[in-house]
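Q: Convert this sequence to structure tokens.
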Amino acid sequence: MASCNTSSLLLGLFVLALIHFNGIDALSSNYYDQTCPMVESTITSVVKKAMLNDRTVPAALLRMHFHDCFIRGCDGSVLLNSTKKHQAEKDGPPNISLHAFYVIDNAKKALEDMCPGTVSCADIVALAARDAVHLYGGPTWVVQKGRKDGRVSIASETRQLPAPTFNISQLQQSFAQRGLSMEDLVALSGGHTLGFSHCSSFQNRIHNFATTQDIDPSMHQAFAASLRSVCPIHNKVKNAGANLDSTPTTFDNRYYKLLLEGKSIFSSDQALLTHPTTKPLVTKFAYSQQEFEKAFVESMIKMSSITGGQEVRLNCRFVN
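A:
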């Protein structure tokens, strides 16, 4: 069994390496300058409109981009619909709570009317994620473009996503398999400055944590008590949960400050304080929003360059 798992892991690493190195040279900042010059302003307009109607949209778009890139590269495979015979990524357990797909659909429709068959869904997701960060007060950056859309989307592959219960070794391995460093791990974790989590993702820290401890001792006691009141052990409220930091609609460095105070939500957040490489970075970003934003932009560009698609879809929910 061990040799089988090792072979699978090596094959996965080989595929991700091919995806990464074959795709990166094809991307450029001026990819659509001649074929669809209004691409960025069109997507920004759609994201802004959606955000005005629903304040959860930016966090949803940023998370969608992460979850897309971490499976088969940034190829829009997370957007594909399931069929009667086949479950796609968006219906894998970690992705059930993904939403705001309609924002990508709306941007795609506008772009198809303007420049048919030109802009990939994968590029729309990457640009929308950048806009989401910027519109919530975060930095902006030049998004390299030219990604292609994938034709494969498999629900079971979402098990490859880093889980909120991961320890630092598991996180390091997950990121390394995608060519991302420990520095990238800490910077991209800062995306947790936006958004909300359901109780199930942090239940392990506030109930039955260990044989002799009900609550994770690394958590601030009053903070843990507040989470337990919202998420009792036999929680029956479907949408119960907590914001990932105290300013969930502002892109800032509050996430890192709260982490140092024992007020992080996930085990994977707390794990960043357990390694000699990652802990000083948490401290650095907690004390300097400028340093955090600089690192976040660099890591986003790096992650967004993992490509692997084959076509430009006409409808983001279906292969051509």
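The first helix runs from residue 2 to 23.
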